[in-house]
Specification:
The structure holds 2 protein chains of 2 kinds. Chain A is an all-beta fold. Helices cover 0% and strands 58% of the residues of chain A. Chain A has no helices and 11 strands. In chain A, a hairpin with a 4-residue loop joins strand 9 and strand 10. The N and C termini of chain B lie far apart (36 Å). The relative contact order of chain B is 0.33. Classes of the chains: A mainly beta, B mainly beta.
Chain lengths: 111, 113
């Protein structure tokens, strides 16, 4: 089956940039997503990228997609303590909008 | 306001006692699905539905049932819950022609003792 992999933990200092990486295996995926989950909360869609794009920027967020290597990254500039959360990458495929999620990366922002 | 509403949000139940987690969306979406979230495993799809009376298994369907009698509702049924179904459950919906707008409910914390 399809696999989406992420490292489990990342710590950065406040004000630094964070880069969260994700690899996926399904080359037929149509959209790739980044979701944020704060403690005790649901999933918040941060951004998404269509599979024929290389990059997407949205304020402090930059998404890079390398289709050849099946690698997706999320860069958060000027990371703040409010960015501490679990970040999930996910890919969608098929007509039923089925999402395959990575295990999530716990981002901890240190003062 | 566009919403996916799940109930209950929190539930502690006992092994074997049937329960239903309801999911309702007010956006007239065709697609709905259920996921469970477990530590270190991310979210895994349980069941999905492409329209009324059309449902199919996801990656982890064992121990669950669903029904889609109306477009807005997609209940998740645990006929005989077991402790390994203790998890955080999310319902999601999306329209047929827009793959970048998938809406999630706020989650239902279920503990089976």
């Amino acid at each position: 089956g399809e696999d989406v992999e992420q490292s489990l933990f990342l710590s950065v200092r406040e004000g630094d940039s964070s880069v969260i990486n994700c690899t996926y295996t399904d080359s037929s995926s149509t959209y790739l997503y980044w979701y944020k989950q704060e403690p005790g909360a649901g999933l918040q869609l941060l951004t998404y990228i269509f599979s024929n794009m290389d990059m997407k920027q949205d304020q402090r967020l930059t998404v890079l997609l390398n289709k050849k290597d099946k690698h997706l990254s999320l860069r958060i500039a000027d990371t703040q303590t409010g960015d501490s959360a679990i970040y999930f990458c996910a890919e969608s495929f098929g007509s039923a909008r089925q999402l395959t999620f990575g295990s999530g990366t716990q981002l901890t922002v240190l003062p | 306001e566009a919403q996916v509403t799940q109930n209950p949000r929190y539930l502690i139940t006992v092994t074997g006692k049937k329960l239903t987690v309801t999911c309702s969306q007010n956006m007239n979406h065709e697609y709905m699905s259920w996921y469970r979230q477990d530590p270190g495993l991310g979210l895994r799809q349980i069941y999905y539905s492409m329209n009324v009376e059309v449902t199919d298994k996801g990656d982890v369907p064992e121990g669950y049932k669903v029904s889609r009698k109306e477009k807005r509702n997609f209940p998740l049924i645990l006929e005989s819950p077991s402790p390994n179904q203790t998890s955080l459950y999310f319902c999601a919906s999306s329209p047929r022609y827009s793959g970048n707008t998938i809406y999630f409910g706020e989650g239902s914390w279920l503990t089976v003792v």
